[in-house]
Amino acid sequence: MTADTVSSPIPYSDAALEFRREIRDWLARNAPEDLRGVRAVPRMPSPELKPHLDRWASTLAEAGLMCVAWPREYGGRGLSGVEVAIMNEEFDRAGVPRLTRGMGESLVGPAIITHATEEQKQRLLPPIISGEHDYCQGFSEPGAGSDLAGLRTRGVVDGTELVINGQKVWTSGYYKANMLFCLVRTDPEAPPHKGISYVLLPIERDGRSNGVEFRPITRINGAALFAETFLTDARAPLDNVIGGLNQGWRVAMTTLGSERGGSATTQHVAFERQFWRLVEKVRERGLLGDVRVREQLAWAYSRIQVIRANGLGLTAELAAGRSGGGLANGSTSKIRWSEFQRAMTEMAMDLLGPDALVTGPDYQLDEWQEEFLVTRSHTIWGGTAEVQRNIVAERALGLPKEPRPAKGVTS
Q1: Is 259 a catalytic residue?
Q2: Domain ranges of the chain
Q3: Taking every annotated instance into account, which residue ranges of this chain make up the domain Acyl-CoA oxidase/dehydrogenase middle (predicted)?
Q4: 137 close to 94: Cβ distance less than 8 angstroms
């Protein structure tokens, strides 16, 4: 099958097919052999793998293949959603990772492009593309997780700076970041959704801590990919407030729409790879003839195809020049994939039987044990499944808001 005859229910334009050929040809010439088969990059790569990834990231940046969805005038390629989906498919086909600049590219960049001043765009976007600025997220707080409007971290204007004090939690990517994008309350007298500012905070200042302390949180699988974050007189220039003081809620919605939607157009690719690995494991155990096992596998495969169809539908909307549903679409996508992954790993553990229970201080978790433990949090981070359903009900379907008890009233 050639790039011209890729089977798809999406009517790709001639330009899209030409772009597929361009990416496929470029990968044929440049894909690094030392990364063949490394489609999914660990969040904390091994010391042996990291240099290879760094070289590949530099190659991609030099070829203009970082931050590709950003407008050309800000260093991107101005790719449409369809073209980004094609690019992801071709990297997967070549068996090499499609590296990005992480949260800086997918979450912070869109917020800057949409809401920042021209001066801020020219100053803050290039360091993301180059990798000079690596961001971690400071939204959730101990008393304000999915309900971000309840945040209490304070930001007080002091001359040309904002002085920030408070606490954040579930800060992912802290271990490699040098910038924190966070929400702070800059007008405590305003209503909950008002008086919030979206701030880009340097983690260090003049080579020293900028009042930012990370305390790692060990996850159930033993890894510490998240942290509590304590901000004590941390300082950010007012020029790093995106969208203006007290206007951060609308900026945050741009970020959350990106986070919750994720890579909806191509998520099924990774899920299918995982599914077939499970099928192979079941085959090794001689269980494929069991009707109950076949029913469970059929259930999982059908759900993956639903996710695929949803992604294709989003791609079709993008191809037609529509936005793809915005925040509500991001919420439905988040619900769908996060609940599927939890159920899929529960099913895998059931199929593995007693072996799935083997663990201990010196025991290395296998793929399925690791996935089972990690996916416990997937319906929580990025907005809980319950909150996502409220968003869909209230913002997409126009249903009445969920009744909430008055302040000071407990059930």
Answers
A1: yes
A2: 7-100, 132-252, 262-396
A3: 136-219
A4: no
